[in-house]
Structure formats: C-alpha cells, structure tokens
Amino acid sequence: MSWLASRAFHAPPIDLRALRARCPAAMGVGCASVVGTSLWRSSSAAAAPPSGRAAVPFACLGISTDARLKEAVQTDKAPAALGPYSQAIKANNLLFVSGVLGLVPETGKFISDSVEDQTEQLLKNMGEILKAGGASYSSVVKTTIMLADLQDFKKVNEIYAKYFPAPSPARSTYQVAALPLNARIEIECIAAL
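Request: output the structure for the sequence above.
Response:
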C-alpha cells in the first residue's frame, strides 16, 4: 500500500519499519507526508530522479486542534449566541460562522415572520460577524442554508445572490424539521482569511 501511494505521488518509497522505529506515534498518510520530506532530503542526494527534473517532496496541510490556536469572534452588531457557542471561531486562516438567524440585534426578536425579511436581516447579521472576524461576503467559501420550508428556496436565492459576489460560495441547502425560535431560515458559513 505504501509503495502504491509513493508511486502515485512520485515520491521515494518509505520503509515504514524504520519510520515506526523513529516515530512510533506517527500513523497513516499524515506520517508519510510529514516524515516523507525528511526522508526525501536524506535520499535525494543518493538517487537523482530518472526524468532529469529536480525531485520535489510532497507536502501536507496540517490542521491543528490546539485550543490556543482558535479565537472566538463576537460582535454586538449581531444577535448574541442563543446557547453555549460562539458567533464565530477563527482557526487555521478560516472563519467558521455559526448558524445566523434573522433577529434584530437590539431586540432579539425576528424582524418579521416572512422568509424574505428574515433572510435579509440574517445576511446583514452575518456581514457584521464576518467583518468582526476580518472577513467579508466575498471571502466566504461555503454556506449551509437550513429552511423550514423548501418552497422558500427561490425567494431566498433572490436575496442571497445580492450578498455573495461571483464566484459564489459552495453551498448546501436543506429543509429541516424545525429551527431555533421557529425561524424560517438559518445560514452558517465558512470564510477564508
């Protein structure tokens, strides 16, 4: 299996027995990508690539779960979280915005019962959270829309399109059984920083 992976990435084969002896806690493809670079350095002097091109090690994007590397984002210009969660979290050059509702920040009440008004208000609220986190609508890469009634899809799309410039973010839309406070719509997003 490791031979197959190394061939697919044009990387030198890795002796996993030697790797386990050096790093017993390292596991899976992650260990091969991290350790593969140091093994490549030691073996690249010994074996030149047959194509004549310079050998390049493959890299791995590491994502840390260290609590010190995440930062809560909070703004008074958007409704406060309704439970034990943050309005947004910054981590690994991304901003994760929690589900946003169409509540008026000053009152904590819905702007109205219409899905159009709630969509407009929640996107304004989302914009304030994005701004507080150092992002904007144009840096959003993924959204998830939860609707109380999928029949509202077209109405929501018309308003949504005004806020997200091309290229539009990737998106998923679901009809759900219920939303907090009997909302008609909730949207969450991920933005690149």
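DSSP finds five helices and six strands in the chain.
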